[in-house]
């Protein structure tokens, strides 16, 4: 006799299975879609962090090399007859920039004539690469451990000292080489840059690892302590070294999967860079934790609903054949992605309860999906200020450039940095600094139009993108910049205290200065530094010989 179930049991089982299938299908469909979205968004964020780190490393090296170049042009070095004066000059540089662990002036024979703290003075270092390369021309060496200086420099940590060498020939007025100006730059500054990059991400930075990898032999120069000095073999590293910044989920040598962002340091201005690759990773289980939690919620909801509907089905077996068919058809259409309501049946209470419960389930699932949309929205906004973040900025730039190209308009990028913010943060504390940033964000929103954007890049740096006409770009942007500076110059009240800050702005115009949005941001940042150097609290356009001051 074939096995069979009575109608009540069959209906109860069918109802439970239907709800489980519906919940499971929606769970995996929605979580898979969310996984792809989160991987793209967080991956792009990690790649952007890598790019910021690479750019700051190259910018720092460019700055230090430039300072050595400038120092080598001073008459004190070009006519090296006063070693005591040379030492005072070198000690002054070290005092101003402590990252210079050792700076020395070496004569053409390789003898150290003067140096910071007198270290190595009188010794011959003609066989050292910093001299042999520096006497030929400007030389910047890769990271290496100290040799001569290991026992001469203070080292409280006891860890091996690592340096980056910078040296340039010094020539007199007749163009003759009279010596070499050499410097050892402490590698510890790279960790300071790492902390500055991770500070805005304080809620998640404990799960991030940053690596700096040498191009010559893929040696880890900066990273977790146990991996520094080891060679790194990693899928995607070669692509990054070919200047293709990217991100994705990668299996690392330890066998674990990490969401990983890659960026390549290709130099800054006239500094060609040392070919360092910056890698930022986050464990995949942490990156996708929200997706896993969402899937579990779906499955729990499906299991509980299955039990409820199985009980209802048991009591409704004799009258549900036709209504159940309609419900099953609607559920099938939902499974295929159609937006249809679950039919509501009146007259038979149990069937009506079943249909209402199913509709409630669909509503709950819909609300959960909307919650996911809200989560996605939060991923596009800065947690502290509520302003759009870099992810939202990337999306906006694509749409804004398309609109501007169609209408023949331009986009003016205003790179803002607050003058005096660090002093307020140090004096009144981080809570006051956070409150100040929130007030600044509110004023920035008030100064931009609805079709424009003001975003926080990190720390006290912001970026505004303005829609400007092709024939009045700088005039229109200058008006908005003046309004921004004037607004931010006005006093802020923080917990009963009145504080004031300034605002320096650098501007670059798309597509006049570049058609690459990343390049435009970099050019605006470069113009910002010009505003800082010109006295702060002013606007400077990229390529301009002057800046527009603002009294405030």
TrEMBL record:
Membrane topology qualifier: Multi-pass membrane protein
SUPFAM superfamilies the record matches: Nucleotide cyclase (SSF55073)
Domain GGDEF: 409-544
PROSITE patterns, per the entry: GGDEF, HAMP
Protein localization: Cell membrane
UniProt cross-references to CDD domains, sorted A to Z: GGDEF (cd01949), HAMP (cd06225), PDC1_DGC_like (cd12914)
Domain HAMP, first and last residues per copy: 318-370
Gene3D superfamilies for this protein: 3.30.70.270, 6.10.340.10, PAS domain
Gene Ontology annotations of biological process type: signal transduction
Protein's UniProt keywords contain Cell membrane: yes
Segments crossing the lipid bilayer: 298-321
Main location: membrane
UniProt-recorded name of the protein: Diguanylate cyclase (GGDEF)-like protein
Species per Swiss-Prot/TrEMBL record: Paenibacillus methanolicus
């Amino acid at each position: 006799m074939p096995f069979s179930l009575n109608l009540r049991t069959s209906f109860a089982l069918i109802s439970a299975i239907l709800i489980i299938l519906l919940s499971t299908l929606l769970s995996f469909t929605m979580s898979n879609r969310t996984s792809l979205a989160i991987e793209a968004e967080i991956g792009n964020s990690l790649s952007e962090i890598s790019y910021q780190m690479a750019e700051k490393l190259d910018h720092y090296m460019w700055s230090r090399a430039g300072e050595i170049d400038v120092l080598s042009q001073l008459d004190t070095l070009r006519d090296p007859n006063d070693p005591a004066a040379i030492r005072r000059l070198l000690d002054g540089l070290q005092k101003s920039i402590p990252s210079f662990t050792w700076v020395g002036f070496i004569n053409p024979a390789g003898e150290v004539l003067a140096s910071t703290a007198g270290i190595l003075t009188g010794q011959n270092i003609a066989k050292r690469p910093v001299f042999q390369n520096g006497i030929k021309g400007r030389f910047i060496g890769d990271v290496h451990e100290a040799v001569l200086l290991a026992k001469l420099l203070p080292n409280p940590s006891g860890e091996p000292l690592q340096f980056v060498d910078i040296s340039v020939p010094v020539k007199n007025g007749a163009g003759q080489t009279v010596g070499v100006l050499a410097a050892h730059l402490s590698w510890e500054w790279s960790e300071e840059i790492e902390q500055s990059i991770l500070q805005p991400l304080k809620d998640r930075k404990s799960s991030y690892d940053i690596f700096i990898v040498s191009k010559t032999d893929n040696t880890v120069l900066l990273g977790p302590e146990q991996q520094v000095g080891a060679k790194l073999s990693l899928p995607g590293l070669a692509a990054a070294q070919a200047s293709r910044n990217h991100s994705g989920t990668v299996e690392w040598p330890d066998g674990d999967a990490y969401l990983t962002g890659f960026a390549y340091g290709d130099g800054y201005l006239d500094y060609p860079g040392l070919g360092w690759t910056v890698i930022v990773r986050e464990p995949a289980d942490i990156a996708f934790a929200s997706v896993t939690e969402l899937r579990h919620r779906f499955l729990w909801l499906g299991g509980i609903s299955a039990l409820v509907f199985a009980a209802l089905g048991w009591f409704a077996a004799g009258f549900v054949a036709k209504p159940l068919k309609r419900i099953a058809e609607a559920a099938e259409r939902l499974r295929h992605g159609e937006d249809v309501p679950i039919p509501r049946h009146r007259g038979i209470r149990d069937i009506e309860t079943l249909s209402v419960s199913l509709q409630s389930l669909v509503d709950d699932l819909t609300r959960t999906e909307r919650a996911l949309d809200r989560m996605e929205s939060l991923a596009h906004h800065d947690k502290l200020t509520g302003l759009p973040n870099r992810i939202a900025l990337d999306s906006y730039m694509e749409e804004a450039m398309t609109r501007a190209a169609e209408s023949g308009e331009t986009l003016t990028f205003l790179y803002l940095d607050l003058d005096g913010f660090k002093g307020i943060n140090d004096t009144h504390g981080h809570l006051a600094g956070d409150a100040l940033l929130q007030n600044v964000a509110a004023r920035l929103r008030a100064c931009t139009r609805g079709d424009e954007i003001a975003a926080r890049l990190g720390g006290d740096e912001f970026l505004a993108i303005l829609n400007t006409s092709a024939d009045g770009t700088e005039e229109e942007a200058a008006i908005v910049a003046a309004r921004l500076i004037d607004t931010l110059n006005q006093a802020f009240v923080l917990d009963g205290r009145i504080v004031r800050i300034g605002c320096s702005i650098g501007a670059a115009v798309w597509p006049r200065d570049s058609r690459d949005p990343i390049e435009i941001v970099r050019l605006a940042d470069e113009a910002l530094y010009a505003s800082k150097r010109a006295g702060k609290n002013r606007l400077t356009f990229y390529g301009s010989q002057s800046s527009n001051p603002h009294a405030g």
